[in-house]
């Protein structure tokens, strides 16, 4: 999705002070008028436009109504500040509406996630079997192992595939469709995984070479002598796949119930645990036994940026946006990114930071933050999508609370193929534990593709 670049700041009039700087309008290049207001969904058939059901449509209409109320109340709060100081009741109402917007957005995301979940272990369209014979055989053997502890079928299949699928190696590989379902659910729950470049590997470490300096090049006349060029200098980034685990429990009664889809149950049980651990690691992980998050890398002011560190733009006020022209640091952050990355840029912040950003306006009184146009879409800030990652730090002195960049080029997630399950009926009788593991790694692969906003003077 391509995003419109921001209009450059107009030069200040001679003698103008900081308070005379203006925040540019953010609009498509062919637009003459200020940014359009929030989309009007009254009378719009959400189901017809998006294919979503009535529950999603109703939740989205409530979300838009909450945003309209928030905008009106925040305008009143700003007017009270200019006149005599904000009224406590108005300020409290703004915060409650902010919380209502977050809650309604979470409800929409949950409904959309449920709608996207494909049925596992069933039959395809038209009644055709869900997969080829080998896949159905693996599923039947895995089902027998999970329900009754019968491992002979899986041992035979994995020995045939020359796989070391023994209990000492961590259990047995789940069916391919179950692994795909776990991956889909993780992408829906983990914002960084959804934004990043994801590679599936079969080895324990993914190595990516890159060129630190290229061969010498230059212009030369048609008949001039060509000098010998220097050779390129190569280095490599390594991304080890590290183990993450979850241990859901079930009663034997549940396992004996033939109506229970074991594959779907297992995927649902591990999704939240895996997503929470991954989400934290991709943002703040230190790389010791876990992926290295992008905030764990060294950061430096954008004016002194060099490869191996992430550049940041300071707001000019410790723990806050500046009082005069508060949106200017966001403009500077966007333009710190090169045009080739900026066209696919996205903001990442937590909900508390987004609540503060929602209150910012441009010089024409238009809010910089816009609600999503349709269910399932992301809200936008200055025409760039905004994604919530709760692991991002709250606004505080010297905090790196906002990230902006092309995360698909900037951050890499590596998944080692195979999710393994080890059945344990002994450790927590009468419950049966399922020690489920997958191997995942991650780290920054392009240090020029992600920039940070630092709330510092």
Concise summary:
With 457 residues, the chain is α+β, with helices and mostly antiparallel strands. The chain has a domain at 130-212 and 232-350 and 389-457: Major capsid protein gp5 (Major capsid protein gp5 fold). It has 13 helices and 16 strands.
What does this structure look like?
- By secondary structure, the protein is α+β, with helices and mostly antiparallel strands.
- It has a domain at 130-212 and 232-350 and 389-457: 2-Layer Sandwich (Major capsid protein gp5 fold).
- It is 35% helix and 21% strand.
- The chain contains 13 helices and 16 strands.
- The protein has helices spanning 46-50, 54-83, 88-116, 133-148, 152-160, 176-189, 191-195, 252-256, 262-284, 328-335, 339-342, 351-357, 407-410, and strands at residues 172-173, 197-201, 205-213, 233-240, 242-246, 249-251, 299-301, 310-314, 346-349, 369-370, 380-381, 384-388, 400-405, 411-428, 431-444, 450-454.
- It has an eight-stranded mixed beta sheet with strand order 7-8-16-13-9-12-11-10. Strands 1, 2, 5, 6, 14 and 15 form a six-stranded mixed beta sheet that branches. A two-stranded antiparallel ribbon has the order 3-4.
- Helix 2 (54-83) packs antiparallel against helix 3 and helix 4 (133-148) runs antiparallel to helix 5.
- It is flat and about 75 Å long.
- The two termini are 34 Å apart.
Write the layout of secondary structure elements.
Elements: H1 46-50, H2 54-83, H3 88-116, H4 133-148, H5 152-160, E1 172-173, H6 176-189, H7 191-195, E2 197-201, E3 205-213, E4 233-240, E5 242-246, E6 249-251, H8 252-256, H9 262-284, E7 299-301, E8 310-314, H10 328-335, H11 339-342, E9 346-349, H12 351-357, E10 369-370, E11 380-381, E12 384-388, E13 400-405, H13 407-410, E14 411-428, E15 431-444, E16 450-454
Parallel strand pairs: 2-14, 7-8, 8-16, 9-12
Antiparallel strand pairs: 1-14, 3-4, 5-15, 6-15, 9-13, 10-11, 11-12, 13-16, 14-15
Helix pairs in contact: 2-3, 4-5, 6-9
